[in-house]
Amino acid sequence: MMLIESLLSIDKNSQVPVYLQITNGIISYIRQGILKPGSALPASRGLAASLNVHRKTVVAAYDELYAQSWVDVIARKGIYVANNLPDVTARPIDKTVQKHRLAGKTSFRVDDDRVNHRSVFKEMPEGNITFTEGFPDTRIAPVDLMVREYRRMAGYRFTHKYLMYGSEQGSENLRNELARFLGETRGLHVAADDILITKGVQMALYLCAQVLINKNDIVIVADPGYIGANEVFEQAGAKLALVPVDEHGIDIDAVETICAAKKVRMLYVVPHHHQPTTVTLSSERRMRLLELARKYQFAIIEDDYDFDFHYTCGPILPLISADYNGNVIYVGSFCKTIAPGIRIGFMVAPQNFLQQAIRLRRHIDRQGEHLLEEAMASLLKNGDIGRHLKKANKLYHERRDTLCSLLNRQMGHLIEFKIPDGGFAIWVKYLNGVDSALVSEKANELGLSIGAGTDYYYDRAFKHSFVRIGFASLNEKEMTEAVEIWKRAIIRAL
Amino acid sequence: MMLIESLLSIDKNSQVPVYLQITNGIISYIRQGILKPGSALPASRGLAASLNVHRKTVVAAYDELYAQSWVDVIARKGIYVANNLPDVTARPIDKTVQKHRLAGKTSFRVDDDRVNHRSVFKEMPEGNITFTEGFPDTRIAPVDLMVREYRRMAGYRFTHKYLMYGSEQGSENLRNELARFLGETRGLHVAADDILITKGVQMALYLCAQVLINKNDIVIVADPGYIGANEVFEQAGAKLALVPVDEHGIDIDAVETICAAKKVRMLYVVPHHHQPTTVTLSSERRMRLLELARKYQFAIIEDDYDFDFHYTCGPILPLISADYNGNVIYVGSFCKTIAPGIRIGFMVAPQNFLQQAIRLRRHIDRQGEHLLEEAMASLLKNGDIGRHLKKANKLYHERRDTLCSLLNRQMGHLIEFKIPDGGFAIWVKYLNGVDSALVSEKANELGLSIGAGTDYYYDRAFKHSFVRIGFASLNEKEMTEAVEIWKRAIIRAL
After folding, report:
1. Fewest beta carbons less than 10 Å away: which of B168, B268, B414, B439?
2. Looking at this predicted complex, what is its ipTM?
3. Which domains are present in chain A?
4. How confident is the model at residue A88, as a pLDDT?
C-alpha cells in the first residue's frame, strides 16, 4: 500500500477547512481505486504527525468519512475503507440505448402563442449607466439585517418547524405583523386571516386574474398603464377596456361610460402613483370610483406597491380604507422596500375571494419561503423596516430633488415634467415631438440605458414623446453623468 | 426644557444596541411632543457623560436620528429637533367616511368552487408523534450552510446585482451547476438553457398543466397516485384516465388500451418510487412507455422528486435519459434534499415547451428568489449538497432498516409490507381488512398522527387497508414509541 500521508497535500491558506481537504483527498483516492475497499487507514495520531496538523483535525476528517459511509470503524482494530462503497451507480434502462441527448423540440404539440409575452426580462448592457423605470437602489438594501435574522433562526431549535411544509396563506407571524403595519401606516383594520402572503405584487395580480376572469370578461385598465398587469389579465381571457389618465388620475367619466354600456368584471388601478405617469388619483375621483364599483358590482384591484415612499405631503389613504361593500382587493409589496429580488408581496381581500386565491396559490407553488417570511416578520416587529423606510425616504427625497434641479438647469428647453410627490420616478415629456424610442437608441450608443417608451401604451406601435425616469437608484455623480449623456442623445434625436 | 438625560434610560444588558436605545428614546419623546420641533439636543460629550456611555455611542445615535430626518444639524451651532418631522401622516380620502372595516364578503360575484381543493394544509396536533407520509428530517437540514452562503454574499459588492430583477428562467449559475449535477447523478447531458428553476415540483406541474392542457384533454394518471398532481391537472380542465399500479409500477397494458381508444394529451408518472406505493417502474415497462408516447404523441411528465435517495441498489436512470424524440418533461426538486420549506425545484424540457413555461412563470411571480438560487448554486458547486446527500442517505438507510425490523418483530401478524429500495416511506397493508381511516382515528386518540389513507385513491370514499409510513423523519426512540402506539391503535380498530 502506498503511504497515504505522501498522497495528501494540505493547503493551510485555502478557504476549504483542512479536515475537509483530508476528507476529499481520501475520497478521491478511494474513487480512483488507489485505496481499495477493506484496506486500513493510518491511525489518526500518526497521520496527524506526518501531515503536521492537530490530531483533532484528522479525527474530524475520519468522522466525516464515516458519516458519508466511505469507511468502516472496527472497534479496537481501526478504520478501514468500506467494503460497500456509497457511490451507488445508476443503472441504464436498457444497455442498447444511445447516449442521451435532449431533443430540441417536443414530439407532442405545443402552441407557440399559448402564453403572451410582450414584456420579457432584458439584461442591461454591461458598463452602461442606467435610468431605470423606477427601482430602489439595491446598494442600500438591508441585506445585512436579513442575514442577521437568518443567522438567529439557524441557531434556534424551533427553526426546523419553519423548514417543513406550512400554511399556503403564509407565515402567521408575518401576517400578524403586517396587519399591525397596515394599521399604523394605512389606517386599515384587518386581521392576519384577511391577508395572503404572495411572491410580490405579480403573484397577487395573477391570482386575481385567474380566480375572477372568464373568457371575454371586461377589465378596465388605464392607458398608458402597467403592461405587466395587462398581460396577466389578457392571459386569463379578459378583454381590456382602456381609459385615459390626466393629472388627477384615471378618467372616471370614461369608466362610467363603459359601465353603462357593458358588464364590467374588474378595474385595475394604481391610485397612489399611477404607473407610468406618477399622478395621484384625487379624493373626489376615489369616492366616485368606489360608488361606481358598488353600483355596477365590479372588483377594484388596487395596486399600492409604493405607498411607503412619499416625500412632500402625506399620501391619500388607499381606496380600501373607504370600502365598506367589499369591492376592493388591495395588493402591495416589500419588493421595493427591501429589494426587487426579495419576493414578498401581499393581498388583503374579503374572505370568500381570499379562500379561492389561497387554494389556487397551493396549486401553483404550495407555499412561500417560510424562513424568508419569518425573517420579514421579525424585521417588521423590531422596527427595522420602519427605520429602513425612513432612511430610504430621506435619501430618495434628496435624489428626487437633485435630479429635478439638474433637469431644470440643464434640460429645461428640451423636456417638461412635474415633480412627483413620492415614488421612484419622474414622468418626462420630450418637447418638439421628439420620439422616445429614438432617444433611447441614441442614448444607448453613448453609454446610457434609458426607456424606449414602448411599454407604456397598449398600442406598442404608437409613437410618443414620454419616458419614465427613475431617480432612486443613482447617486449624484451618476445622475450628473447620466443627464449629460441623455442631453446629447436628445439633441441627436431632434 | 426637561433634561433629556433624565428621560432616557439605558439597559446595557438588552439585545438592542445602546445607540438604538438612545435613538428610539429620543424619537419617542419627539413623537409625544415632549421634545418640540426646533429645540436643541445636548452636545454629545455632555449627554455621554450623564448617561455613562462612550461619546461615540451618542454620536452614532445622533447620526441615526439625522439619517431618519428627526433632527437637523446646524454647522457650528448644534443639533436641533427637525422642524419638518418625517412622520408624514396619511390623509383620509374623505373626512366623512366611517372607520374602516374590511367587508366579510365581496359585492362582486366569486364562484366558491372556482378552484378545487381536495387537499389542504393541516396543522399537526401539538404534542403528537407523527408518521409523516414521507418527509425528510428537517432537524438535519443544512441550514447552517445556507446561512453561511447568505453571509458570504451579504459581504460581496456584486450581491446588489442579485437583488435586482433577474431572469425568469432562474439564476444562470444555478442552472449551470444543476446541469453538471444532473449529468453526474443521472447521466443527462443538458445545458443551462434546457432548465427552468421552479418553486418545487409543484410549480413545475402547474406550468405543465397550464401550458399543455385544454378543456377535456385526457391525462393518464396512476390510481392510487399523487393527489397534488391530479388536482393541478383537473384545475386546468383535464379529464383524468386512471390506470392501476402493481409491483412493477403503472400498468402499461392499461395505458395502451386508453391510447388506442382516445387521444391522450399527457401521462404523469413517478417512475423512481411511485407515490404512494414506492414501487419502481421496471426497465421493460419504461421502454414500452416511451414507445407508446412516441407512437401516440403524448407528453410524459416524469416526476423524479426523490431520485437522490436510494439505499439498496442503484436506481434505474430516469425515462428522459432514454428519450430521443422529445416526449419527456423531467421535473425534480431540492425540497427533499434541503427541506420542504426551501422551495427549489426544476424542469428539463425541449426548447419549444420550455419557452412557453418560462413565459407563464413570468406572469405568475416574475422570478424566483435570486439570493436563494445563488446560495444553492454555491452549495452544489463546492460539493456541500453531495456531502449532505451522502450523510442523509446513510442516516435514512439506517432508519429504514430500524423501522422495518421493528415492524417485523412487533407487528408481523397485523401488517404486510415490502422493504423499499430508497425514498422516505414504506407502503403498508393492514391485514384482516382493517380500515386505514379507522386506525388513523384510533391512533390520533392515543397521541400518534398517521395517514388516514383518504388521499391515495381517486375515489375518496373507497375504503381500503393501505397506509404510507415515513421513516426518515423519526429517530429510533421516536419510532419505537410510534410503533407501540400504532400497534395499540390497530388492535382497537380490529
Report:
1. B414
2. 0.88
3. 4-81 (1.10.10.10), 129-138+389-493 (3.90.1150.10), 141-386 (3.40.640.10)
4. 58
